[in-house]
Design a protein that fits this description.
Length: 170
């Protein structure tokens, strides 16, 4: 099996997902794409105060993982995810999800504005080998120019760890 489907996401967030520090994405919208690779972006890291968007205990981690590995137009792709469930919550209820992501509640509320939170619970997998890949453009979702194999992917969290988190989030 292989895919070219990607979602753009901050590199530090991708690394948090890929290292088991985070298990959700909080969005303004639901997704029709139920599985995808993560394509790292860096626009947030270009702002002077970008670290303020992250919880204090993760700021060193974010600094260390702010920028993805690049080679010209190619970016390193390391992780694949499946959307297990999407839960809709009012913005004033997102505080209970703080331990499942690395951002501050203030950042999340600022991002959401008056929208409800669409919380994507993700099962994240590490690719057998990282791949340097080029995409064809796009804002939220992008397609890679060449497909990446999903053979040999390994879940970041064990079944037991992941089930425990999903049960706690419901």
């Amino acid at each position: 099996m292989e895919t070219t489907k990607c979602i753009n996401e901050w590199n530090a967030t991708i690394e948090a997902l890929g290292q088991g520090k985070q298990t959700i994405l909080i969005r303004k919208y639901r997704t029709m794409q139920k599985d995808f690779l993560f394509h790292p972006t860096v626009s947030y890291a270009l702002k002077d105060d970008y670290l303020q968007s992250f919880q204090k205990q993760y700021r060193k981690f974010v600094e260390d993982n702010a920028l993805p590995k690049k080679d010209g137009e190619k970016t390193e792709i390391k992780y694949f995810a499946k959307v297990v469930k999407v839960i809709e919550k009012p913005t004033n209820r997102i505080g209970r999800f703080l331990k499942y992501h690395i951002w501050t509640n203030e950042h999340v509320k600022s991002y959401l504005g008056s929208n409800k939170a669409e919380i994507w619970i993700l099962r994240v997998y590490r690719l057998k080998e990282p791949v340097m890949a080029e995409h064809g453009g796009g804002q939220m979702y992008v397609n890679l120019k060449k497909p990446i194999s999903l053979e040999g992917i390994e879940p970041v969290l064990s079944d037991k760890e992941f089930t425990k988190i999903v049960e706690a989030i419901k």
